[in-house]
Amino acid sequence: MRYLIPALLSLSALTVAPALHAALAKPSPILTTPDALDTQTYARPQVARVTHVDLDLAADFDAKVMRGKATLDILALRGAREIVLDDKGLVIEKITDARGKALTWTVGASDETKGAPLTVQLGTARKIVIHYSSKPDASALGWLPPSLTAGKQKPFLYSQGQAIENRSWVPTQDSPGIRQTWSASITVPEGFVAVMSGERLTPQGEVVAGGKRRFRFSMPHPVPPYLIAIAIGDLAFKPLGPRSGVYAEPETLARVAPELDDTERMIDAAEKLYGPYRWGRFDMLVLPPSFPYGGMENPTLTFLTPTIFTGDKANVDVVAHELAHSWSGNLVTNATWPDGWLNEGFTTYFENRIDEIVYGTERAAVLADISWDELQRDLKLSKPSATKLRVDPGEEAGELAYNKGATFLRTIERAVGRERWDAYLRSYFDRHAFQPQTTAGFLADLRKNLIKGDAALEAQLLPDRWVYEPGLPGNAVHVKSQTLAQVDLAMERVKSGAPAASLGFEKWGTQEWQRFLNGLPRELPAERLADLDSAMKLSTSSNAYVRSAWLVLAIGNRYQPAIASAEEFLPRVGRNLLIRPVYRALVAQGNWGKPIAERIFAGARGNYHPVTVSAIERVLNPAA
Ligand code: BES
Ligand code: ZN
Predict the structure, then answer these.
(1) What is the pLDDT of residues 514-537, one digit of tens each?
(2) What is the pLDDT of residues 96-107, one digit of tens each?
(3) What predicted TM-score, i.e. pTM, was given to this entire model?
(4) What domain range includes position 192?
(5) What CATH number corresponds to the domain at position 569?
(6) 220, 368: one domain
(7) Is 402 a known active-site residue?
(8) DSSP of 480-526, one letter per residue?
(9) Which residues form the pocket of ligand 1, taking CB atoms under 6 Å from any ligand atom?
């Protein structure tokens, strides 16, 4: 009991403090329930928290560093003497107050993933200026040489902040529960364009000394700091509709823009479901192939891998997904990373509702059925404790959170009916807009506003089982697709020896191929693989999803011709979810495959973003 008293005192003091500072900033609440404790930050936001970050940085492509200063606005308890920030390898020159008076600061012991605490002695200062640069190996930043771009003439830079990487280039409190507004002024060499995940105030940039160009940005809504994102390169823009458009290298733009022409319809569909889009524009940036994810929901500027552009719009569900994060994730944000399913599970559900409105029920069923397959795969591969939606502290929500989370929400939808469920979800986003959310907070909201004491409904839904227990509850809803049922028939015919050329695969898109390749028996004789390969041109497929699924199957059978295909594919694509399974398949083949994986990775690692490098290193060397 004793120990609670100081904590309560500081909490009540904090509830007073925002009122005093209301004119300066409107910080959204820091949750104080025990399950909102973020163990992946050093920040102590109950004592002092950042409310606004202003960046004034220049990109140095030769040194591979961002250099300049960050000015932080701080809200602190009256009497608070210091603030703790997150720092992953920043090179700090000096820290001052707003008038330029030097402040004392220290960097504590460093952890490989979390970085180190940066403690600044504030005195009475409530605004501080940090003069610093990032390190060339900053874990958020991908510095690409010209050879890894489409144009091959100019280098390229992009950031990936989620989950805890932004502390390697932005000195702030890097926790999803500590929302901050931000602004930025970014200076780039002549001939480059900078874009960021906020309002783009100077789309053409302003010329400054030495022919350089300065681009200014502003994010007026408080956002979790993992959503601060930047890219600099030879970028062109093509409008898609009144509030959407696409940035890409000029060489890439014409090819990708037509596949994004349903974007406005997606935004309209999303708004119809769950309320207004609150971020102004929804533009997209297509990155070079080293981008480590399918997409990243950076506000106003979703980042996309080029691997989704297969010429047939088969993968624009990724666009629907990142758009859906504008509600689930960016508006209502997981308070800590073990609550990640609140971002990804909600988004995977919401994404499918958008797909259904824009492309119809069968198309949505195809995507939901594939999601079910992935869920079954992940349930098999994961250790039981990792199959809880709310993972234990210290563990990170994995791929399972996407599809188990979506299945949970679909199960509720079926139980209460769409009308009631949609009304609930819409009000949920409104109630918690621009705030962090915990798993317990969601369940409390669900009980208060949907279940409302209906014991029979509670027993039908089993919310605690879904969220806190491993595995899949018996009430899970599986959406089945007619289209994929046809593919299953083709799969059966392969098993009974039919030649690949007779299977009728000519019109298949990504999902049909995924169903087929992932559904075939894992053990196949070399002649069967050779027949499939020659009829379906799998080893040379330009569809990266097909290539990935094929390589996993082929490598699992030590099918020699797949090696040349892997040698070509793995160094060229940096999307984690497509290449990690291939490296895993090689490593699973022990003495036959592991040396091949090591050799390919040695040549490819320089092409990957730092987060992909560490992910593949963990595959090759699980102990580390
Ligand atoms: N926010 C995620 C990407 C992410 C997750 C980055 C975890 C860092 C840590 C993004 O919205 C996402 O889920 N991307 C998916 C695509 C989606 C359609 C499943 C991906 O990367 O493939
Ligand atoms: Zn996502």
Answers:
(1) 999 999 999 999 999 999 999 999
(2) 999 999 999 999
(3) 0.96
(4) 3-234
(5) 1.25.40.320
(6) no
(7) yes
(8) --HHHHHHHHHHHHHHTT--GGGS--TT--HHHHHHHHHHS-S---H
(9) 162-163, 293-297, 318, 321-322, 325, 344, 402, 577
